[in-house]
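Consider the tokenized backbone below.
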């Protein structure tokens, strides 16, 4: 079969190392019944997922050439031809699901925010991102790469950086390394403050990350007794998810 031509506008870099593909698929939990692969391309991950028994497996692919290739190679594969970012997951899965993929670098953040929007449905994600993004998502407080995505995703998911993939493992090779992460929804994790307020406080703090919280969060009102808390002398990258919750709980807008 003629191979699919990688398209720059779609951010396509096809993984050409089957051992790495198998390692990514093997990183999935063993109790997954509903699996959606995003951007399968020529099916390097797909072939290993199809070996699993008793699963409800679908792929979503925006590239028409890839769709035709996959239809010929895997005639029984359920292919959703379209844009994952516009996909209504409830139309295809009426239960919890896992998402897997070698994700295009140019829409990495959008994919992760899509997962966040569907956090009550998506119980696990195993995926390959640009290494910088993967490290940021899995980062702990105190590191420079710790940021908005780190806090918002870790509020609901346990996140682990699994391994690094070199540039020469792809066709065409990207200019940077890739990183594979696993995110598992923790059913015990829930924030104890208003969710919209939590997002706004986190984003506002990190948008001025060089400032202390006393200066970056001036637009928020906090309870009188809390205003002198030492937390306001800290910068956002020093705070854990729990400390951001604490800030919100002591905000006048949470009352």
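A designed sequence for it:
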């Amino acid at each position: 079969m003629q191979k699919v031509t990688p398209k720059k506008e779609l951010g396509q870099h096809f993984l050409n190392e089957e051992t790495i593909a198998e390692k990514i698929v093997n990183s999935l939990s063993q109790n997954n019944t509903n699996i959606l692969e995003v951007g399968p391309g020529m099916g390097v991950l797909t072939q290993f997922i199809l070996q699993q028994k008793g699963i409800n497996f679908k792929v979503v692919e925006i590239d028409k050439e890839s769709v035709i290739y996959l239809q010929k190679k895997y005639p029984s594969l359920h292919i959703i031809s379209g844009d994952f970012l516009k996909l209504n997951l409830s139309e295809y899965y009426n239960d919890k699901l896992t998402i897997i993929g070698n994700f295009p670098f140019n829409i990495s953040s959008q994919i992760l925010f899509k997962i966040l929007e569907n956090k009550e449905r998506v119980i696990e994600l195993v995926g390959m991102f640009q290494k910088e993004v993967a490290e940021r998502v899995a980062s702990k407080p105190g590191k420079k790469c710790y940021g908005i995505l780190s806090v918002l995703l870790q509020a609901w998911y346990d996140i682990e950086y699994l391994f690094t993939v070199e540039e020469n493992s792809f066709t065409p090779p990207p200019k940077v390394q890739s990183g594979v992460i696993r995110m598992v929804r923790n059913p015990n994790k829930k924030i104890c403050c208003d969710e919209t307020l939590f997002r706004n406080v986190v984003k506002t703090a990190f948008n001025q990350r060089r400032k202390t919280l006393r200066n970056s969060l001036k637009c928020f009102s906090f309870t009188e007794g809390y205003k002198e808390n030492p937390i306001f002398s800290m910068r956002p990258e020093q705070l854990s998810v729990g400390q951001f919750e604490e800030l919100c709980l002591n905000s006048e807008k949470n009352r």
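Residues 222 and 251 are 4 Å apart (CA to CA).
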